[in-house]
Amino acid sequence: MTRIELSVTGQAPPERADAARNRRKILDAASRLVREQGPQAVTMNAVAHAAGMGVGTVYRRFGDASQLFLALLDDSEQRFQQAFLSGPPPLGPGAPAAERLRAFLHALADRIVEQREIMQLAEAASPSARYSSGVYAMLFAHTSMLLREARPEADTAMLAHLLLAPFVPSLFEHLTMRRGMTSERIKAGIDDLLGVAHDVSQDPVRPVDGAS
């Protein structure tokens, strides 16, 4: 079985140690504000206060709040990619492909639930940009690779797109905030979806209702 080796995308060039520490402090402070008070609480002044540094440092590092939001998404995306590319199984290498796919989709659901509000800001700004982004390319490549190992007989490119289609913040907003569904229920639905896809592949020809 041919295995595609992927690498983490979007990694920033090396920084001086003090610059890297400041970046980490700012991102951690902004992440806490989003988690505790929502993205509307993230102003450059608020982040500077939470990080214990001057607001000028925050502006010099990120420019404005929109750039800070993008940096937050990029930072969490790099951590997520590292986890599924080189972390422990079943999310990382070492587990069967079907188990890795299940763990990957569960982790992706957790990531969207956790950062739904920030992701919605990006989605609202440019809904179609998702499919031309490096992040989506990485998710698609990883999903396709696992599907090729688990289901070599399937149209894995199409199936990868269809499996990733529900993983958008607007749907998770609807499910969690408007319908009151928990992350556990969403993951159970993902498991059902994977099971249905497998069952259909085992019995591809099914008569329609009323057919003999």
UniProtKB/TrEMBL annotation:
HTH tetR-type domain ranges (all copies): 20-80
Coiled coil: none
InterPro entries linked: Homeodomain-like_sf, HTH-type_TetR-like_transc_reg, HTH_TetR
A Pfam family recorded for this sequence: TetR_N
Record bears the keyword DNA-binding: yes
Key words, A-Z: DNA-binding
DNA-binding region(s) in UniProt: 43-62
Annotated protein name in UniProt: TetR/AcrR family transcriptional regulator
